[in-house]
Amino acid sequence: MMWVVLGWLGVTGCATSASVAVPQTMETARASEADSPHEGEAAEESLCDVSAACSGLDRYLWDGTPIPEELTEAIAVLEEGCERGEGSGCAALASMRVLGRGVERDLEEARSLYERGCELEASTSCLGAGWMQFHAQGGELQAAQAVRTWERGCDLGDASSCRQLGGLYHFGRVVEPSPEVAVTYFTRACAGGDVQGCGDLQEHYGLRLGATAEEEDDSARVLVFLRAGCDGDVALSCVLAGAFAEEGRGRGKDPQRAAALYRRGCEAGEYYGCTLLGMLYERGVGVSESSRRAGELYVQACEANNTVGCASLGVLQLQGRGIVGGPILARQTFERACKMGSARGCYNLGVALRDGRGGEVDEAEAVVRFWIGCERGSGQSCDALALMVEAGRGTEKDVALAEALHQRACEAGWPKGCYNVAVSFELAGEERAGSPEALEAYRKGCEGGFGRSCWHLGHRLFQRAAGAEEVIEALEAFERACRLEPGRACSRAAAILMEDARVPRSPQRARRAMAAGCEADDGESCLRLGHLYEAGEVVREDRERAMVLYAKACGLGQEHACSRRGAMLLRVPARAEDGRRLLERGCEQGDDWACERLQR
């Protein structure tokens, strides 16, 4: 997902280079590689250029039914799945009919299957159905129906369907032209990972959106379009403007305004707004914290078939917060979300099955659900699946496949997956552990906000550092780790700032790192902070504060801190004997500094 907040919308899609809603013939759909254009020939765009369904069969239908590798058997499973109401089966079977792969090519049957799949809430099926309706493929031209079909697909989370709608509103085909609505749909497609949705924003409106709110881009100008759309009662525009306000895109963060815009969108029938408003209530951001109100909003969204609303509802039910639920009901809700194609729902269902929440442990079924979530674009699912495969839980152990799945998780934007890629290099031996590939994986994990990845990146960089530039990069990694997961990384950063001659000494910057580390119970950070208070460096001299810090560090296993506290107690007549015992213990433990103090 492209953005933190909009990522919760659950918009998914295949990144393609296809343009939007330009009438083309489907006769160019290729039946096989043998029919592909020769070098130098340009292929006319077809449905398969914009449909993720045509990229190949997944391993499972969304209800968990395995799809055989043998094509004839796979077709039979798809047909059976579609007949019993599994929309993903209809969608996959339709694409096979378009391609003539394993079955006779039949556009009329393909269109019927796509339409049925869309009715059954398979989002990618709506994309195909709308395309064929709009281009009069497999039946008569139904342009107005195509708009409604793509609206359904976009609502269900298909980013390419959102982009098609953006194209219609931009060019004024079937609908009245509206730059505000076009930018709204292109923005939603872009946020859903549809590369061309981002490209259309830039090509048609000169607007570029960055991957983070901190990145310089044209968010302020996009926000003008979204506000205009919202003022024109376009509910989706209100919700996206709310997401901009929550993330601080285009202007400063304004959670109260975000809540108001989400509420407006929700009340107008845009149920992503209900879900995002529920998340604010759950966290108490911009509104008074209320798990009960969050639960009500999630129920409202889930009943309207908003997959993220269902997945969020399941979490509240599992935790028993604000709503009647419990593990059994939560598991059922996760299953519903997963069957609707929610990657997050599939991940949560996999966790419930793996850990036995709401029912018996079923590791084999957990593997299935993680697979489906992974195929739906969830890096978290890919990573969880990799760990199962790596350990041989619920499936055969396969180290190579596990590494590939960790890599897939990383590429999907799950930072822990990047970290696990690097760890797999570590386990393969020192040569791979220190390789540029391993460092890059740690770097991606760190940039994605996974603290342990920053720690290991800093450690590896510092090990090989030859000059100031490399030490500075290691220091930055340790400091980022200290902010993300305060602990030992804080003391490593402080040590570099205080003692490494290759970088300018900075006691004040080091003190901040020490304080964060000590607060997180890192003994060395407490010890170093005690030094500062004892010496009065950067901070006002405070011997009592120093002794408290030494005591904490000593309790956390820092023997030198015990010795330092002992030396300070030695100067207090009433505590001199306690001080001597601490120094003696330090000396026995090999602390030369303690031995020297005893000899004085």
From TrEMBL:
Record flagged with keyword Repeat: yes
Cross-referenced InterPro entries: HcpB-like, Sel1-like, TPR-like_helical_dom_sf
Database matches in SMART domains: SEL1
Coiled coil: none
Signal peptide span: 1-17
The organism's place on the tree of life at top rank: Bacteria
Keywords: Repeat, Signal
Family, similarity comment: Belongs to the hcp beta-lactamase family.
Name of the protein in question: Sel1 repeat family protein
Protein's organism: Lujinxingia sediminis
Taxonomic lineage: Bacteria, Deltaproteobacteria, Bradymonadales, Lujinxingiaceae, Lujinxingia
